[in-house]
Amino acid sequence: MSKIEETAYTPQGMTQTALPEKPKTWICKADGIYLHVPSGFFYWRPGGRKHRTWENLLTTALAIAKERYAKLRYPAEKPVAEPKPDVTMGQVIRKYIQDSYPDKHKAKRTGQTLADEEHHCETLLKFWDHLTVDSCGPAACDRYHTWRNERGFQHGTGERQLDRELNTLNNACRWAVRSELIKFNPVAERPRYQAHSSVHHCREFMPENADELHTLAAKLFKHPNSVVGFQLLFEAYTGLRTQEILMWGQDGFGEVLQGSTFVRCWRAKGQHAVNP
Hints:
It is built from 8 helices and 6 strands. By secondary structure, it is an alpha+beta fold.
């Protein structure tokens, strides 16, 4: 036989041609870097997984593969972010002042409502200025209640005044959340200090019938030049506000529309700082 070197003998004495060696699929070219022979790309094998697998380094150059492997295998430590300074309630209130006391519709307040918000913010800053938002809540409102009572009120017990001031603080915090100055409103669940049983409404004192109403108006009509008697009757029978009745006699308000039984009236709306 001319090619005896290519034959082998089996245990049974039979001859068999030797098979060529199968080429390798993966070849280690550096520490942790393997060449995928069929594609020519370099790969690495991430650890920490239940089943290790190959991950492509997306390059056929060994030098670039080493750089990318080093970044993946030994990532640089991320710098520790410095904690943001705590936002104070003073900053929240001043943001509200700076933006002209916007309401829930982002509209600027006017008239008496604006004056009340300005006065309340001036009082609130004396107590809340340096308190952080994270430290505020119902307990802080109770401490404000004590602090406020120690200084006295101009009228009554001040419970209603306290509720109005804390409502202004709530308005400021709500605006700060919408302005992304803070993430939550710390006084959204604030306590109310005026009991409902102590609140009195005008309907508790209104006349029970037309006879009683006219008896009251008769006292006002004793003065020959008085118009408040008519004002009382007009308000009682129309349900209009005093401000709206006082507009009668100007620009045609109070006149009966031609061909109808309707009276032309001026109505106070939100822009006049009058709640409906």
